[in-house]
């Protein structure tokens, strides 16, 4: 059973989707690879209390790591990339090539990029922290402007918050 709700955020409205009560999607307006709205199930804010609370803490600079159960559905390679994204620390970036090497597939930077672009739970699974080999911002499903906004936001978080 799927359900969804929409919440406001500093990067615009976010659509949260749960499958059997577990977060399975976080989509931005006009996001590339966003599933059809009809696939999100009925509107119901019930399953999202903890998700909303943790997102509010993140945007208030009181949370640097999310602690939520996730229902990430994709190919085994996509799920491996998404799991690797969860290890990229707040306020840091990694290149597609570095992420590919960490997965033991150093020649798979493009495949990592494709899997990164299909991440169904943006922000919480921090695909915005992946950059090009020269540090440049490459594509982002939520748009490069949002990627820059999220990276700048994390970079401006005081060190005292990061150490707690």
From TrEMBL:
GO biological process, one term: DNA alkylation repair
EC numbers for this chain: 2.1.1.63
InterPro entries: MethylDNA_cys_MeTrfase_AS, MethylDNA_cys_MeTrfase_DNA-bd, MethylDNA_cys_MeTrfase_DNAb, MethylG_MeTrfase_N, MGMT, MGMT_N_sf, WH-like_DNA-bd_sf
Catalytic residues identified in the record: 127
Molecular function (Gene Ontology), one example: methylated-DNA-[protein]-cysteine S-methyltransferase activity
More info: This enzyme catalyzes only one turnover and therefore is not strictly catalytic. According to one definition, an enzyme is a biocatalyst that acts repeatedly and over many reaction cycles.
Family statement drawn from the similarity comment of this UniProt entry: Belongs to the MGMT family.
Free-text function comment from the UniProt entry: Involved in the cellular defense against the biological effects of O6-methylguanine (O6-MeG) and O4-methylthymine (O4-MeT) in DNA. Repairs the methylated nucleobase in DNA by stoichiometrically transferring the methyl group to a cysteine residue in the enzyme. This is a suicide reaction: the enzyme is irreversibly inactivated.
Record protein name field: Methylated-DNA--protein-cysteine methyltransferase
Organism this protein belongs to: Saccharothrix algeriensis
